[in-house]
Design a protein that fits this description.
This protein is mainly alpha-helical. It contains 8 helices and no strands. Helix content is 83%, strand content 0%. The longest helix is centred in the last third of the chain and has 43 residues.
């Protein structure tokens, strides 16, 4: 692997990991699986990671085709994706996500897998990574993020005890600010590309 590929891979992995934000979602994961024993909780988390991995891989493989079929330019998608990520960041900063009265048996795929791990923001980041850093780097980044997420979920109880409720909230808010910064960067890059094209 050359240096440019490694830098692209690092960029794609970090941007996707920030959006997926497994650490910030730890309190929600704990709450949704509070009625499960350790075996059922582990099964739910595995289902969440598998669901998220498959969905992101589908968009990593078909993302370029989706853009082509709808004749969407990359700068348009950057701007739209940036706006979407910005709204997501503001939602995370302004209020807490609450998923109540959800059956533990159903929580593995929904909402743990979708939309908590893989929502519109993660899908947007994946497609933008696909166009920005290429297919190989995007696919590897998706795999790396899913593996890290699985490790986080596997050790969720000690991590939750270590961070505590306040620590988990702080991590979530910091991640939200980073998402907002990435969103603004996407918008600025999209506008810059559009201006360069029309000039």
């Amino acid at each position: 692997m050359d240096q440019e590929f490694l830098l692209n891979l690092l960029k794609a992995t970090i941007s996707l990991f920030i959006v997926v934000d497994p650490f910030g979602n730890i309190p929600i994961f704990i709450g949704l699986t509070s009625n499960m024993d350790s075996g059922r909780r582990a099964k739910a988390f595995r289902m969440a990671v598998i669901t998220g991995f498959i969905l992101l891989m589908i968009f990593a493989i078909a993302g370029r085709w989706v853009l082509q079929i709808f004749n969407i330019t990359l700068y348009s998608f950057r701007i739209a994706g940036g706006i979407l990520l910005l709204f997501l960041a503001l939602e995370l900063l302004m209020k807490e996500k609450v998923y109540a009265k959800i059956s533990p048996e159903e929580s593995g795929a929904v909402p743990l897998g979708v939309p908590l791990l893989v929502g519109p923001g993660a899908i947007t980041a994946t497609i933008i990574n696909l166009e920005s850093v290429g297919f190989s780097a995007t696919m590897i980044a998706v795999a790396i993020v899913c593996i890290i997420t699985w490790i986080v979920l596997k050790f969720i109880e000690p991590i939750h005890r270590l961070l505590g409720r306040v620590g988990s909230t702080v991590v979530s808010k910091v991640m939200a600010m980073l998402i907002a910064a990435i969103a603004v960067q996407f918008i600025l890059e999209g506008v810059s590309e559009y201006i360069s094209e029309i000039i």
